[in-house]
Design brief:
single chain, mainly beta, Immunoglobulin-like, 1 helix, 21 strands, globular
């Protein structure tokens, strides 16, 4: 089963993700000062999968001692369709009391022993049913299990503000390359321990670039198989493999697949895109196997708000 076995937690740009015990209760509004919030989800994708369908059941917003819960029904999203700067909307212009919020929680339908996708996925492009699952490139379907999701959810801690008579627009970006694992003995379940960054859409930029065919296919590196990816590290960090045991500032903050594109004349090229990066300096490197990098010291990349930065790997 071609599933990435890398796992970490975010500990970097925007938020810390916790799988929590208990979700609190919903609360009533405070005063007549309100604002609006929109929330979308995006993905840093995973190799070897056709679909990663996540069933979002509700969103809880917490301010002080009060929580506000919005039922989603659920909304089932194939994260693989929303890469780079593409995002799927979960909420649009939801009215909330204005003020500071300490965290939000994404409720998901992803229980151990569930039947996500198994009874109703027929190979169609759209997600089926109301549970979370992953469909691999060979068509095999596995139920996705988020530990403690039956009673809890995914809590994104970092703080944000809903402005009075204004709007806030956020994206929760999953990084599936660091999130999906297949421990021995759990089949037919696959574990999803999401790495998520919560970012304000008006405060981010985008990284993109071209990759040579020799690198993207592994021929320059004399590899028989290659899963071409680009890793993004904080400035000054030497590119290195994701540590499965230790989570620290040496881990990549984001990853992206290198995708093959064919133009109208039949010419093939390879490109990557990493969206929703906060402004600042980064190190970027290409990898086929997640352990060796080109170049070994990385390439510098500076991200600016609402701008596109290009870093190529010729």
């Amino acid at each position: 089963m071609n599933i990435s076995r890398y796992r970490t937690t975010v500990g970097l740009i925007a938020v810390t993700l916790l799988v929590i015990a208990g979700c609190g209760g919903s609360g009533s509004g405070s005063g007549d000062k309100t604002g609006r919030i929109s929330l979308s989800v995006s993905d840093g994708p995973i190799h070897g999968a056709n679909k990663v369908c996540i069933a979002f059941s509700e969103i809880e917003f917490h301010s002080g001692a009060v929580s506000f819960v919005e039922d989603l029904g659920p909304v089932v999203v194939n994260l693989l369709e929303f890469q780079g700067m593409n995002a799927a909307t979960l909420l649009f212009d939801l009215e909330l009391p204005a003020g500071d919020y300490q965290w939000l929680r994404l409720g998901v339908n992803a229980v151990f022993g569930g039947t996500g996708g198994m009874a109703n996925d027929s190979g169609v492009a759209e997600c089926q049913g109301d549970e979370s699952y992953i469909e691999m490139a060979d068509g095999t379907v596995y139920n996705l299990y988020v530990p403690s999701s039956a009673l809890n959810g995914l809590k994104l801690v970092g703080g944000f503000t809903v402005p009075v008579n204004g709007s806030a627009d956020f994206t929760a970006e999953f990084d599936l390359m660091k999130s999906v694992t297949a421990p021995n003995g759990l089949q037919p379940d696959v574990v999803l321990r999401p790495t998520i960054r919560l970012v304000n859409n008006v405060e981010v930029g985008t990284l993109t670039g071209a990759v040579s065919s020799g690198l993207a296919t592994g021929s320059i590196l004399e590899l028989l198989t290659c899963e071409p990816s680009v890793y993004v590290f904080d400035d000054g960090v030497t590119p290195n493999a994701i540590d499965m045991e230790v989570v620290d500032e040496m881990d990549p903050i984001a990853t992206a697949m290198v995708n093959e594109q064919t133009d109208l004349e039949g010419q093939v090229s390879y490109h990557y895109t990493v969206g929703y990066l906060l402004p600042g300096d980064y190190e970027v490197a290409f990898t086929c196997d997640g352990t060796t990098f080109q170049p070994v010291d990385g390439k510098p990349a500076e991200i600016f708000v609402q701008e596109l930065t290009e870093v190529d790997f010729p």
